[in-house]
Amino acid sequence: MSSTPSLLFYLITLLFLSSPAAATQVCSTSAGKFTANSTYESNLNLLLSSLISNGSASGFFTDTVGRMPNQVQGLVLCRGDTKATTCSSCLSTAGVEILQLCANDKDAVVWYDDCHLRYSNLQFLGTLDNDPEMAVASEYQVYDETDRFNKVVNELMNSTADWAAYNSTKRYATGLAINATHAFPNIYGLAQCTPDMSASDCRQCLEGVSQGLPMGRLIADNLGVRCNLRYKVGPFFEGNPIIRLVSAVTNGTTPAENTTTPASAPASQPSVGSTSKEGKKKTIVAISISGVSAVLLIPIIYICYRRLRKQTSKSPYGTESEQATQVDSLLFHISALRAATANFSEENKLGEGGFGAVYKGVLPDGREIAVKRLLNSGHGLGELKNELVLVAKLRHRNLVKLLGVCLEEEKMIVYEYVPNTSLDNFLFDPVRGKQLNWGTRHKIIHGIARGLLYLHEESQLKIVHRDIKASNILLDAEMNPKITDFGFAKLFDVDQTQATTNRVVGTFGYMAPEYVMHGKYSIKSDVFGFGVLVLEILTGRKSSGSYNPEVIEVLLSYTWEKWRGGSALEIVDPTLGAHYQRSDLLRYMHIGLLCVQEKPNDRPTMSTVVVMLNSETVSLRAPSRPGFYLGNGGRNANFNPSNSNHPIGTSDRGSKSCPMSSNEVSITEMEPR
């Protein structure tokens, strides 16, 4: 176990550097509510469509729709370093979620890492008012060299704000402070205003925001409609910082004079004052650092930094064994997991995955957990490490949260408990399937798409999941989807587009043709699996786990034949009855068919998929026949359109792992996953 603390330190550092992806919103109650099907709602929908389409192209856009008293104004701004696809995806998500988070409010704003959006019945575009503002910070504070840390942060924020205001036509700048403190040597900062502001107005706005920026925290933002500031003890923006502040390493509690490169502002700066108004309300919101329980992780990170810094001196935390005990607080002891799961009783068994069983548990503090109990094999341990390294750095509302790990005589991973189990338990059950009304299916499709987009493009990593299927989609209490099981996931370099393997892993029926036949996989492989899943959700029919392509792909062939013949609605899941939006359903089926095209280059990226799902005005090209097309609706006589829950071919046997043959065409060996 001597390597365990260093392994944990590495994983925890990855967690610590992750950025929160959840939305922060302010919903105004004073502006009133609008009613369904009202003129205001119609104007708002037109406004959101305009903001998303125009803002995606330029990164900033304002617009006004309608006449008083039903006039609505809006503004969108993407972070200055975001790519067009990331900006478009963020704005599309914002346009959907702001209506859910602030249902029927006439005035609302929502912020994400990559963008923010505001709409209002107030005439706010004619002013430079930054309201509403929201201060957001980690609940964990810096205790060592706090004065030095705060002074460096202030200098970094001032220099970055100067550059954004006076040296950037985009009114955007990033910075890096080096040699900040021993525990946290690097601090990253960002300042941004809307680009329609003058230099002096931008700088004055940022000065006002700086007055409410929380200090002495590991991460802090002060968010506004017109300008915002952010700092963090790890990187969070793309590219190199525009300015750098280098402090000499000193033994004192205040930094030596900084060297700033490049100069951040002109010599003649206008004096600025606070723009804070009396009565302005600012709320500091504690945010989670990562998907793992932050209560356990942040103190451990801090201890690890101290241990590295003071290896040659006496530790203030006591002996090495006492420090190891503190580090071990991340770990779940097997005795605790046995107690939580009633010794892994059959009553608490949630299901059987590719590498072992999953059990429900309840911790002494009342938290419900899911424990993946890995099979006792070297292969399982390798998948454990793979899943830890990948999932630990990911944080998104549509990905399952990792809580901890057990590394004793049994290897286990502990996740958040998701009460409604997996999607396949509803989708392919004629009784439970009735709970999946059209609104729920709509929400599930959108959530899976956003989760995959995060994996492919929006997280600090680029990850190919390789096993997207209905049983790997968990549903929470509100039926929101969460992607799980990263045992087969692969990390890609930023510029990497494809990889090849001699050992194909995944689930037949969801795997792309180029992967099954040649071992080639990419983000487009996940797009293929997503397309199959969309068609399953719409039809209620199962793409089997058989490894024979002539059996498994009947769903794709049959859907394609019906689509091409103009009778696609004949294969809609009968449990929906007539209670669905016909145009939306056909559009989603269209998107699903585009995702299962035979050639990877013919499939859209997930960022394009999200845009297509969220916009009725985006034109869709006609799909061609899907991969594994069999012709004449397939060859399986068991495929009965009147029975939506009848599986195609054999039953799903779970994920498979098999070596490629020498000619990379036939599959010669099957193993349990």
Task: Walk me through what this model shows.
The protein is of the alpha+beta class and 673 residues long. An 8-stranded mixed sheet has the order 12-11-7-8-10-9-6-13, with helices on one face. A 5-stranded antiparallel sheet has the order 1-4-5-3-2, covered by helices on one side. The longest helix has 21 residues, at 146-166. The chain is globular, with a radius of gyration of 26 Å. The two termini are 28 Å apart. Residues 1-23 form the signal peptide. Residues 253-276, 633-673 are annotated as: Disordered. Keywords: ATP-binding, Glycoprotein, Kinase, Membrane, Nucleotide-binding, Receptor, Repeat, Serine/threonine-protein kinase, Signal, Transferase, Transmembrane, Transmembrane helix.
Question: How is the secondary structure organized here?
Answer:
Blueprint: H1 4-16, E1 24-27, H2 39-58, E2 60-65, E3 72-78, H3 84-101, E4 107-111, E5 115-120, E6 134-138, H4 146-166, E7 172-178, E8 186-193, H5 199-211, E9 219-223, E10 227-232, E11 243-246, E12 259-261, E13 284-287, H6 294-309, H7 320-327, H8 334-340, E14 349-353, E15 356-362, E16 368-374, H9 378-392, E17 402-407, E18 411-416, H10 424-427, H11 438-458, E19 462-464, E20 473-475, E21 481-483, E22 490-492, E23 499-500, E24 503-506, H12 513-518, E25 520-521, H13 523-539, H14 549-552, H15 554-564, H16 582-595, H17 606-614, E26 656-659, E27 671-672
Parallel strand pairs: 6-13, 7-11
Antiparallel strand pairs: 1-4, 2-3, 3-5, 4-5, 6-9, 7-8, 8-10, 9-10, 11-12, 14-15, 15-16, 16-18, 17-18, 19-22, 20-21, 23-25, 24-26, 26-27
Helix pairs in contact: 1-6, 2-3, 3-17, 4-5, 11-13, 11-17, 13-16
